[in-house]
């Protein structure tokens, strides 16, 4: 009985739970229906249907054309002229080869304004093109160096060059083969560099050269006769190792200034030197191995004012033709083997400033020469003049004169071309007008060829203009 009651109670509770669940579900459905009603079907309209209206579009904005553009301006030229553009890569290629630049000049070789900014380069208007062009190079005392640094490509690549000056650098190697193509090239200074080997024959192709300076290098061998045919004003080859004889056509040079000093030349001074009578001003033969007697033709050098043969092995007496050297200021015959009487006429040269006969074997001087000694113009120390101080020993003089001394041109040594006098007796005749020696100047004159004996001294002058 009790079990039955419990069963009925359970059934009642279960049914009640089902009813409650149904009520809750129904309530939720009604809530959703009221919140989201189903879509209404469209009702048929009594009015006639109209076509759907298109949305209004705004009128197009008026097109505004941009203002007309100015015609493009041509870019400014990179170089002042095409002639400068031509040499720019040449300079830059050379710059890459320079590895030693103590003055840092190559740092200025940047940009396109070569004429204004590049140290050592100079410009001018080249006549043929009427354009600004690179007219000159002045590397004097730059001390540039590099592995086998040469001038070949640089010089060949500067077609309008007038001068190339490079005293005191470290250039070496060969010369360009096409120097003949440089139509304005007048000056070449390669003094005090590292050149060596035989004479640079290629320089002979630069036929317009007026100035050539090869001093203080290590060139050796023979100087070719063609060298004397260049139309030079300056011929400076001192302080090299040139040897053999001087060219026989020495007198064919047009140079006003010639120095072959401090080389190894042998033999005599060519008689052709007299052919330079109208052009030669200064000539230095000092410190070579020259021998033989002086040719009388030296007396023909009527415009010369410097003649120096110191420190050679020359011998004989002083040619009487020397009295014709009316412009002579410096006459140096020291440290040779000259002997005999010093001609009085030579001591009467009107412009004589310095007359040096020291370390020879002269035996006699006359009153005019003694006056020069007194004035400090004539130096005769270490000779064999018995009544003067500071002479050689008697034994030294006796030893020298114990040997035979003569010259093959002995007769010509008494020839005086300016008076056409041949004999020593006639030299004292009234036809020879001797003058008293001029007083020594208070300030010594300047002699260009002696400056050339200094390695760092720059002889050349810088000409930026073109010769026509």
From TrEMBL:
Residues 35-77 are annotated as: Disordered. Keywords: Membrane, Repeat, Secreted, Signal, Transmembrane, Transmembrane helix. Residues 49-77 have a biased composition (Pro residues). The keyword Transmembrane helix applies. It is found in: Secreted. It holds the Pfam family LRR_8. The chain crosses the membrane at residues 7-27. GO terms for cellular component: extracellular region. It comes from the Eukaryota. This is Uncharacterized protein.
């Amino acid at each position: 009985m009790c079990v039955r009651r419990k069963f009925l109670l359970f059934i009642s509770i279960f049914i009640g739970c089902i009813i409650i669940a149904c009520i809750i579900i129904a309530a939720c459905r009604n809530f959703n229906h009221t919140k989201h009603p189903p879509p209404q079907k469209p009702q048929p309209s009594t009015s006639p249907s109209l076509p759907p209206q298109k949305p209004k579009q705004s009128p197009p904005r008026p097109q505004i054309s941009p203002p007309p553009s100015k015609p493009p301006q041509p870019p400014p030229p990179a170089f002042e002229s095409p002639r400068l553009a031509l040499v720019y890569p040449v300079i830059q290629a050379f710059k890459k080869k320079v590895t030693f630049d103590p003055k840092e000049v190559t740092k200025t070789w940047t940009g396109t304004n070569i004429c204004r900014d590049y140290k050592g380069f100079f410009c001018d208007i080249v006549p043929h093109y009427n354009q600004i062009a690179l007219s000159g190079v002045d590397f004097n005392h730059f001390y540039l160096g590099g592995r086998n640094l040469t001038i070949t490509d640089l010089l060949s690549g500067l077609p309008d060059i007038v001068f190339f000056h490079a005293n005191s650098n470290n250039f070496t190697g060969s010369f360009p083969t096409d120097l003949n193509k440089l139509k304005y090239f007048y000056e070449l200074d390669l003094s005090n560099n590292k050149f060596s080997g035989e004479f640079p024959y290629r320089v002979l192709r630069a036929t317009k050269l007026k100035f050539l300076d090869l001093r203080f290098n290590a060139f050796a061998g023979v100087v070719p006769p063609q060298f004397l045919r260049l139309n030079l004003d300056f011929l400076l080859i001192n302080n090299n190792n040139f040897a053999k004889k001087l060219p026989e056509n020495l007198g064919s040079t047009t140079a006003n200034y010639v120095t072959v000093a401090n080389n190894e030349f042998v033999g005599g001074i060519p008689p052709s030197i007299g052919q330079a009578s109208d052009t030669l001003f200064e000539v230095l033969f000092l410190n070579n191995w020259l021998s033989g007697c002086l040719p009388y033709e030296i007396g023909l050098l009527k415009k010369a004012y410097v003649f120096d043969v110191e420190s050679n092995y020359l011998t004989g007496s002083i040619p009487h033709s020397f009295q014709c050297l009316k412009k002579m200021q410096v006459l140096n015959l020291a440290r040779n083997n000259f002997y005999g009487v010093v001609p009085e006429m030579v001591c009467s040269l009107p412009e004589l400033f310095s007359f040096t006969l020291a370390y020879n074997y002269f035996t006699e001087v006359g009153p005019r020469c003694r006056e020069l000694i007194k004035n400090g113009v004539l130096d005769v120390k270490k000779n064999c003049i018995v009544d003067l101080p500071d002479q050689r020993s008697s034994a030294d003089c006796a030893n020298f004169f114990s040997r035979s001394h003569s010259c093959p041109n002995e007769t010509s040594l008494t020839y005086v071309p300016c008076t056409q006098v041949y004999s020593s007796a006639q030299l004292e005749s009234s036809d020879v007008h001797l003058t008293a020696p001029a007083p020594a100047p208070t300030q010594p004159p300047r002699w260009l060829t002696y400056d050339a004996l200094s390695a760092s001294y720059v002889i050349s002058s810088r000409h930026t203009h073109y010769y026509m």
